[in-house]
Amino acid sequence: MRPGRLPAPLHQAMSFLRAPMLGLRDKAGIAAGLMRFLRGGPPDDAESFAPWLKRTRQTERAVRHFWEPVVAGALNDGFERCSAKYAGKVFYESFLRSAEGGRLGIPVKPLSEFFAPVVEMARGLGVEVRMGAGVDGIAQGVDGRWRVRCGDAVVEAGAVVLAGDWRGTQRLLAGLGSVSHPTHRDGTAMNGAPGEWGPVETHISEARCGAPDLERFVAAPITTIHLWYDREVVDVDHAVLLDTRIQWMFAKSRIRGWEAGRGSYLELVISASFAEIGMGREEILASALGEVEMFFPLVREARLVKSAVLKEARATFSVAPGLDQFRPVQKTGLPGLFLAGDWTATQWPSTMEGAARSGRLAAGEVVGEREKFIARELPATGLMRLL
Hints:
The protein contains 13 helices and ten strands. The chain has helices at residues 13-18, 24-35, 49-55, 60-75, 84-96, 111-114, 116-124, 166-174, 206-209, 252-255, 274-277, 281-295, 352-366, and strands at residues 137-140, 146-150, 153-157, 160-162, 219-229, 238-240, 248-251, 264-271, 304-317, 337-339. The strands form three sheets. A five-stranded antiparallel beta sheet has the order 6-7-8-5-9. Strand 2 (146-150) and strand 3 form a beta hairpin.
């Protein structure tokens, strides 16, 4: 499916009509379903996507070959645990609002290199970046300023943004009322300055901090299988695989421009991999190899040089029905303490877009203007502008 010359929301209509993995009845049901998202998803997150599919009478093949691949890939969960609000958000932004909104971005560099330009730019602006420095605790002094403890070092600041996952953030917030005064063995404060940590306000409730209710958040896993072969085995950069456990194949060697003769490197992605969490490496690998050979027969002729299986048990969180009321805003109940992360209130699901928005909203709260740095949504184009 790709954009054509027709205006939005019809920009993908011609390629959609030619799509071979769907029949005419499937396509009619999908089109009718998408029409319900012309103004976006439902206003609240009370209903899961499963009853929505039944109510709109989606065919079994439409579910397997259209709705499921998109929802699993974008929301990393099954229909029962995804609210119709955020499923609708994905389809509205990706398929209806504009041709630009449906473009797929794929990093051409590994993550270890991907953020290097951001770090360089930050340092150029005078930002001190500390790699591998975990935060052990935070405390607010009686003067209102914050102390952040990283091992033996203490950083003092007027404002702190906690930009970790919800579990790590909860741990730091829970420790606010019980942080000890860190000292060296000789009794002096860390960094050699008396009172560096300073008096701390004790018995700060998590409710005042805007801490999330962890009982309401459910982690959703992602499993990736990495395969290195001695030769080229695919002729596409990426593909969505249907009716398999694997949903995505990324030919990393092609995407990163490997030289001919270097071999090939494939990354296979299994979203919502709850079943794989309890499986062994060899079982996951054997299943993945069997599935990838079905789609790319050249794999059978190549030699597998090495492989790796990576399970991320807490890759994202489930945007379950009713969760919105428990997603905290970026401004907490304590002056100078702010939250960021895809799990905070962003009006987006657990995606990179949601994470980026949370950071911009938190930065706005720090300077007292919530939406000062927010990047606006892509504008509607074509006929969608009338809606």
